[in-house]
Amino acid sequence: MITITLPDGSIKQFDQPPTGMDVAMGISEGLARNCVAMTVDDQLLDLNRSIEKDAAVKLLTTKDPEALEIMRHSAAHVMAQAVLKLFPDAKLTIGPVVEDGFYYDIDMDPISEEAFDRIEAEMNKIVKEKLPIVRREVPKDQALAFYKDEPYKVEMLQALEDGTISFYQQGDFTDLCRGPHVPHTGLVKAFKLMKVSGAYWRADQSKAQLQRIYGTAFFDKKELRKYLTFLEEARKRNHRRIGQALDLFSFHDEAPGMPFFHPKGMAVWNALLDYWREEHRGAGYVETKTPIMMQRFLWERSGHWDNYRENMYTSSIDDLDYAIKPMNCPGGMLLFGRKHHSYRDLPIRAAEVGLVHRHELSGVLNGLFRVRAFHQDDAHIFMTPDQIQEEILGVLKLVDRVYSSFGLGFHLELSTRPEKSIGTDDQWEMATDGLESALKAYGRDYKINAGDGAFYGPKIDVHIKDALGRTWQCGTIQLDMSLPERFDLSYVGQDNERHRPIMIHRVIYGSIERFFGILVEHFAGKFPLWLAPVQVILLPINDDLIPFAGQLGTALGKAGLRIEVDRRSESLKRKVRDAQLQQIPLILTCGAKEQEGGTVSVRTLNGKVRQGIALTEFIRKVQDHVAGRRLELNLFDE
Ligand SMILES: [Zn+2]
Ligand SMILES: [Zn+2]
Fold it and tell me: What does pTM read for this prediction?
């Protein structure tokens, strides 16, 4: 008798060892149809495996995330089978699941995406046949004999120390694999091959170059379509494309991974920082600036020289070693330590928008998302232990205000003490309680990542959600018990004794370059008026009106607006169209009527046209709109 315990606590008994499918059928036929795999005492297994002893069993249906991975891996097998049918000389290597899909590395003549239609057609046949996917265990010598003409599989088999070798068979196709897989090929319902690229066997350039064919798969066609639409939208919003089209920034071989910002990019940058400064002044911060390059003994003291040196740019001058800062913190510690502090001075909230350099491998550089030189909006808050909750709460409220200004949602995660850490149990308890009580007082849900904190303190990470639903970790609030110790920072308490201040690092934008890139994609280049690189463009309707447009532009520029005058001899229609492609929020057409009446005619990017507005009224409306940092372009709606 075998006793199976299901997740809801119910129990099923079987005279013979049942398969997962038997368990599913015992519940309902509908369930059995949607079952993909199972866990037996937390071990992921094929649904067709028999359960030999009493166990806790969870059936995985098409709704479970693990089931999706199992199906995608099975799709890789289906693809390999199709490729072998079309290219019988191809040699298979491995076919793992990756984020959003799968790939298979195959030794074959290079193919292009043009071959995808044929491969997909073969795959469709295999799926339609609903071939059972059957597992069998094979002794090593038999497996080696089976694969005598498959050098990669032989290499993998020989590397296997011990344990069970399993083959999976579907129709006339057999593959060496640990599994698990879906019960039959019919469950690979909606798939698409995505791209092909070269990859070296074992990622070793001295070894054979293989064809890596990527694909994705979903349990239903609607999900696949949704994913492809999302990819298309993400491609359109790609910040490198838009950055070029709107003339915001570029990269040059002279400084790989270090962005150059153009005048229009700087306009957005400055608007971001003006806003940042306004919010931080309001929240009681002061601003500091520390050198980009500092001597080796500073980095030895901070620990960076020993632990972070391979990521740092270093230099030697007058026989002294220097390093370019990878973080603003050590400079911030020197500033705090330069004088005596009383508990009455605390909290001190000292911010620095500092330029930092970190050496990243060239292969991981990615537009503004991953660079080697960037600005961090760091701030160090020095406080007494009883100020922790209120200070953290203050940072959370600031985070909320800033992200909301961009229409970005966010969620919070708290990471607690890891196995390897410095500091006493009491210190950790005080620090973690401080962060948690602030999160509770703030009143939003948060997730706990147990043991995920840094070795020197717990932290709160803030993950924002952009217009496409993608999440990005930007903000972080990090308690640090190490640096105040290393720099021997202290303040004199009410008891007249010296105490170590509690210190947090926090960023809100994080890397400003990266945040800039996220905003470009979030807004798809259509920045709100307060952030737009060019807020107003003036279009003289003929050459005679160019001086008038210039005067108007000067007046608007004096009023603090970012303007451009289109002096080209193009038609008005063409100029309007180009201004729209540049996503300029406000287009002013400058004709004789406007010149005589001292008025403006406005066309907003969202298609509304207003004529005969007095210039002073127009300026006031735009200034109000910008000052309020409104996201909607509703200039005339009140
Ligand atoms: Zn497999
Ligand atoms: Zn810091």
Answer: 0.84
